[in-house]
Amino acid sequence: MKKLTVVIILMMFCMAAVSSRSYAQGMKDNKMGSMTCTKADIELRLAMRKLWEDHIVYTRNYIISALSDLGDVDAIAGRLLKNQDDIGDAIKPYYGEDAGKKLSALLREHIMIATEVVKAAKMDNKVELDKANKKWNANADDIAVFLSGANPNWAKQDLTAMLYKHLVLTTGEVVSKLKKDWAADINYYDEGHMHMLMFADMLTDGIEKQFPEKF
After folding, report:
1. Dihedral sign from CA coordinates of 90, 78, 109, 67
2. Which residues have a Cβ under 8 Å from the Cβ of 8 and sit 6 or more positions away?
3. Please, where are the H alpha helices in the chain?
4. Whole-angstrom Cα distance, residue 100 to residue 113?
5. Hey, is 77 helix, strand or coil?
6. C-alpha span between 155 and 134 (Å, rounded)
7. For the chain, which ranges sit under pLDDT 50?
8. How many Cβ atoms sit within 10 Å of the Cβ of residue 182?
């Protein structure tokens, strides 16, 4: 009975994963027949989603703590930076030690610039905020170049668009919270959370296409 329950749960997740990928790709990419739903696929998909969900959740926690001057801000920042190392570690089995370290370094830079964005927005310093956002976009470009160079299934244009949207949504959280526009703040977070899960699935799909023998 227990084994049957596990099988049913796996089947339900498989259906949800396929539905998510179908939604993300829309009508432009009719490759549903080639999508895998194996144990290896599910394990990678869950792991990748957990990593990028941690990214969005701890970023949210940092925004709240930094804007409210809470005592846990340094601890949250440390956990957020660890998440970037965890993401780098996750690609090492496919792309090697150096690639994993490179991705972690780029993502750590992404987080450090995020702290500059939050600080500038909190101080209402438009000059510094604009400067930080330009650095943030440049870092996103670097991440897109790196990932697209590692995997031909990760198109640079798609990666850049996804990363830029992540920055816009995160900035929206910060600005809305400062304005005490709680409804907008929540909407930005909800959209950003779903967007990050789609990004995680995009990475999983690319890995599975590049290394089909593993799935």
Report:
1. positive
2. none
3. 2-25, 39-68, 73-95, 97-122, 126-150, 156-178, 182-210
4. 20
5. helix
6. 22
7. 6-7, 19, 22-34
8. 10
Closest CA relative to residue 84, chosen from 66, 58, 65, 63:
58
Cα separation of the two ends of the chain:
27
Both tokens of 16, joined, read 């949800």
pLDDT digits (tens, 9 = 90+) for 141-191: 999 999 999 999 999 999 999 999 999 999 999 999 999 999 999 999 999
Structure tokens at 144: 């897109």
Nearest to 74 by CA among 103, 104, 110, 115: 115
pTM of the predicted model, to two decimals? 0.85
Let me know: does 121 contact 129? Beta carbons within 8 Å: yes
Largest CA distance in the chain: 62
Cα separation of 43 and 211, whole Å?
Answer: 15
Backbone torsions φ then ψ of 155, nearest 5 degrees: -65, 135
Q: Are 79 and 108 in contact (CB under 8 A)?
A: no
